[in-house]
Structure formats: structure tokens, C-alpha cells
Amino acid sequence: MVPRRHKPRRNPWLNLLALIPVGLIALFMFFENREESARYEEHTREQARQAAAEAQWLAQADFGQAWSRCAEQLSSALSIYQQPEAIAWHRGGITAYFQQGIDQSSWRQARCAADGVSAGPRVRLPFAVPLLVEQPAEPDVDVAEDDSWALAVAGLGAIRLEGDLLGVELLRLPDGGVLRRDWRGLEGAAQAQLRLVGPGGDADAPFPRLYADSPFSMAPVPAALETLRGRNFAAEPLAALDLIAPTLPPGSLISEISVRPEGIEVTVTGGEFRFDSGDPAAPYAEMDFDEYGVAERSWWYPRQSPGFGCEQGRSLDQVRQMLGERSLRANPTLAWYSCSPAYSDKRSGVWHLR
After folding, report:
1. Residue 186 shares a structural domain with residue 269
2. Where are the alpha helices (DSSP H) in the chain?
3. Which of 28, 206, 319, 344 has the fewest C-beta atoms lying within 10 Å of its C-beta?
């Protein structure tokens, strides 16, 4: 009879020793995650403290202080440097409206609040712009302030929103006059007090509600500005090409096109582009369009280099045909025609869809 062989018994301590590295890793991850959560919570609390302090400052500041800070934030964060066409001020911040781009029938909204600045939608002008009134050829270039507007802003300078004064709105009229509307009320809904500032203007001109939201109750409530609907051109890049077609300089070719939800950027070549007639010609030029299809300028910005664009451009029809042969992804965020080395041989333009 063959004796049975017994397997050597494994020392149980070896099993425990094998688990030590796993346990140490788990313990390290536990403390790391806890520290990360603590840092995130502290960051969130700090943001809340800063927002609360900013909200308190806004509620107590006079208009001159609030507008000075707002204008500084608008220039640094949104590259808005010109004077607004309308302002709505309340204890929570300022909503302002600007002539932006070549569209003379709409304004761009921007907001300054305790949590920072933000770009709002385009809104339709509350009145028809008279055809006889000459519009500036370049609306995004700052011009001398109108006397009535300067007077209206200066008149608010040291005023604070205290007592029964809850808010103030200013509206620049096409003839240069300015309407001012004070909202006052301690009990119930605030009542409007309307006045003209400076020479000119019509006290019966349309004066819609300029506030982006409802910071306090009003009676009666003015009609709201008409908000325009933007488009996500990244989801319909062929429509973006149709939009830019009539704006292209004669004889130009496409060097680069970037189509995103927030707008369109185009670089062209095949022409001579200058800032002034005496300047040397640049071989490339660019133009930006916002999500409403509004061109940023009435002229193309000269460039000496194509960046990621192609040195040799293609016609818009060729670029459109190449795009039509591609399939869009679901929920696209980018349609980019370029000679980027990440997607092409640096010579032949290709479409990158994401």
C-alpha cells in the first residue's frame, strides 16, 4: 500500500503578509480621497464666502463704484470696451447692452453679478433705427460719448440703492436722448418713475424691461426685450458655410474654418489684405461670426501667417463638397477644416469632426 503524500501546509502568516501591500494602497487612497474632498469643500466654502462678500459690496456700492468695477470686468473677461446702449442696475448687479458686431438691429447682453461676469443673449432693439441716422461703420470701436448719455451716467454716480430706491434703468434713444426709469417701493410692488435726461428724446418711446430677470416685484411690469435665438453651427456646419459665402472677399480661398457651438472662425487667402491703403499687403485675413451669425467686423483682419490654416486655399465649393462626404457624429462640438499637423500632411486641408 502506497502511503499518501501530504501537501505541505502554507503558513497563514504568509497570506496575511501578502495582503499588507493591498491594505496600504487602500489606506493611502482613502486618506488621499478624504484630503481631496476636504480641499474641494474648503474651496467651495471660500467661493461662497467671496460671493457673499461681493454681493454685500454690490448692495452697498454707489452706481459709480459698481459700474467702474463692472466695466473693468467686462473689458478683461469679455473684451467689451465701448459704452453701453442701455443699463439696468439693482442691488444684485448690473445688466448692460452693447452694440456688438455689424448687426444694427440687435444688442448683446452682458451681466455683472456677485459671481462674476457673463455674456447673455442677443436681444432685438426696442425701437426701429431710423434710416436717416448714420450708424458707425465699425460699431465695436469706442466713439465719443453722447452728451445726454454722459449726463445720465454722471447723474447716477454717487447714488446708492437705499431706502425705497430698488433699481434704475437707462436707455439710450436713437436721437441721442436718454430715458431714465427709477423703481421705488417699500411695500408691495415697486412703481416706476420715468424722466428724460438731457436734450432730445421722447418720453413716450418704447421702454421695455432691461433686467435679465426679476430682481423685485414691479407694477405694472414692462414688456421684456425680445431675446433672439442663436444657432449651434457645429451641429449644422453646412449651414455655417452658407452663412459665410456672401461675406467672403472676391476671389478669396478658404485656408481654415472652425465651426463651434459658440460661433465660426474663418481664415482666407488669395487676396491682398491691409489695415490701411498704405500698409504692406498680408496674404491672409480672418473673420469671426458669433452664434447668431453676426460678423464681428465689417472688414477682414489681415494676417501674415495662416496659423493652422493651409498655405494654399481651396474654393468654398470644394470645402463644402469635402464636408458633405463626411458623416457627423451625434452631438458634435467641432467641425474644423485645416492643415493642422495633427490631422493632415500640413499641405492638404482636411475636415476634423468631433
Report:
1. no
2. 12-60, 63-78, 147-156, 237-244, 316-324
3. 28
* Cell (9 digits) for 50: 467671496
* Strand, helix or coil for residue 36: helix
Separation of alpha carbons 211 and 55, rounded Å: 17
Q: Count how many domains the chain has.
A: 2
Q: How much is the CA Rg of the chain, to the nearest whole Å?
A: 30
Q: Is residue 284 part of a domain?
A: yes
Residue 136 pLDDT exceeds 50: no
CA gap 31, 13 in Å, rounded: 27
* Within a domain: 225: no
Which three cell numbers mark 24?
496600504
Listed in sequence order, the residues at least 6 apart from 150 whose beta carbon sits closer than 8 Å to its beta carbon are none
**pLDDT, tens digit, for every residue of 66-94?**
999 999 999 999 999 999 999 999 999 99
Q: Please write the tens of the pLDDT for every residue from 244-267.
A: 999 999 999 999 999 999 999 999
For 163, the grid coordinates are: 431706502
Residue 66 lies in a domain: yes
Neighbours of 193 (CB within 10 A): 12
Quick one: cell of 131?
434710416
DSSP of 234-270, one letter per residue?
A: GG-HHHHHHHHGGGSPTT-EEEEEEEETTEEEEEEEE
Check whether residue 191 and residue 242 sit in a common domain: no
Same domain, 77 and 149: yes
CB 139 within 8 A of CB 166: no
**The domain containing residue 131 runs over which residues?**
59-197
Does residue 66 sit in the same domain as residue 170? yes
Cell of 243: 452663412
15, with CB counted inside 10 A (0-12, 13-18, 19+), is exposed
Establish if 5 belongs to a structural domain: no
Q: Tell me, yes or no, if the pTM score tops 0.85.
A: no
Round to whole Å and give the CA distance between 344 and 75: 37
Same domain, 183 and 101: yes
